[in-house]
Design a protein that fits this description.
The chain is of the alpha/beta class. The chain has three domains: 4-50, Up-down Bundle (Transferase, Pyrimidine Nucleoside Phosphorylase, Chain A, domain 3); 80-313, 3-Layer(aba) Sandwich (Pyrimidine Nucleoside Phosphorylase, Chain A, domain 2), CATH 3.40.1030.10; 327-412, Pyrimidine nucleoside phosphorylase-like, C-terminal domain (Aldehyde Oxidoreductase, domain 3, Alpha-Beta Complex), CATH 3.90.1170. Helix content is 43%, strand content 16%. It contains 16 helices and 13 strands. The chain has helices at residues 4-12, 19-30, 36-49, 53-65, 92-102, 121-125, 137-147, 160-172, 178-191, 212-228, 251-261, 267-283, 294-299, 302-313, 344-356, 398-404, and strands spanning 80-84, 107-111, 149-153, 196-203, 232-239, 247-249, 327-332, 337-342, 370-373, 380-381, 386-392, 409-412, 423-426. The chain has a four-stranded mixed sheet with strand order 1-4-5-13, with helices on both faces. The protein has a four-stranded antiparallel sheet with strand order 6-9-11-7, with helices on both faces. α2 runs parallel beside α4, α7 runs antiparallel to α14 (302-313) and α9 (178-191) packs parallel to α10 (212-228). The longest helix is centred in the middle third of the chain and has 17 residues, at 212-228. The two termini are 41 Å apart.
Length: 427
Amino acid sequence: MTDVVSLIQAKRDGHRLADGDIRWLFEAYARHEVADEQMSALLMAIYFRGLDGAELRTWTAAMIDSGDRLDLSAISRPTVDKHSTGGVGDKVSLILAPLVASCGAAVPQLSGRGLGHTGGTLDKLESIPGFRAGLSPDETLAVLASAGCVICAAGSGLAPADRRLYALRDVTGTVESIPLIASSIMSKKIAEGTGALVLDVKVGTGAFMKSLDQARELAQTMVALGEEHGVRTRALLTRMDVPLGRAVGNAVEVEESVAALSGHGPADLMEVTLALARQMLALAGLAGDTAGDPAAAIADGRALAAYRTMVRAQGGDPDAPLPRAACTRLVPAPASGWLAGLDALGVGTAAWRLGAGRARKEDSVSAAAGVICLAKPGERVQAGQPLLELRADEPGRFGPALAALDGAIEISGQAPPSPPPPVIETV
């Protein structure tokens, strides 16, 4: 007979867990026959010992089977989704979902909220007056069918075991485990029912994965999991040493997203967005003609129209004024020269301290707070020239935000090399 202590000891000692034992574990945990302390001990053993490919496949399947699956069979278009591992200024989903929908796919984008220095897609969209992120499964399907895309919170019935496990990982120092990260992300995406998935795995100071090797391993692990569970999956590794685009926050990122959909997005943001869109359309079988050309969909207005349709379908008013910050503060260039560095982590932490992010999942966020990057690396600047604009609801936020920016700005007396392309490689 299986018992949890034996499983903890086996993994602690480097042995693999049998498929039947993993399934028993999740069933017993759902019945509260396995204590959180015991599951925490097993998670720590996995953190140090890992899971092999077969173990991880079964572990992920058990997480999926812990809840419901969204049935997208009634959707007539090919379905494809995207997931980002999180970054600073990463408003790609707001642009990408309607863009890909305007090219003929259906995009069921189940998204999350920001935590720490990384922003959350739902927080951004909820700065739009009336926008609803909490939809029932029936409402999700209705919006997807009518608008071609939906961006909403994952329902509590999808992979509920992941919610419990993540809460334990968050308080036991076991978040940074590639098998546990991969199973957490992919269990929800597979349960979502999409036919294809493109992953944006961020690499750099402002990303969860700091090294290219780590990011590549995570990407390869998630792609394998998707394919093993019948979801056509690809991943792009993209840079996150500098904020993506120029806006970091909630309402300010919505503004930049609308500009991007109107054909006026910053070059780095558009390069990442179009690369992901092309991969999504290829997996959906829609690449190769004008209708499936994302650049054309932006140029002719289809993408912006799809965004407005989605916002209205979720209760939002795309024409309503967005919240504005009561207080602003400019950060000047400390010297003349070239802006050689603008650290994503420093800028993201500053936006968080201004009120745009949260320290705990239950915290509220400011819709108006954030940072505008008035200059980006590679640009010539003069001493005293404004480099950043900080926005907050009260002036007391500026001191902690400025402290986060200490050392984040690098000025060089010589012109730096051209910034590397934001897309590193495809997995």
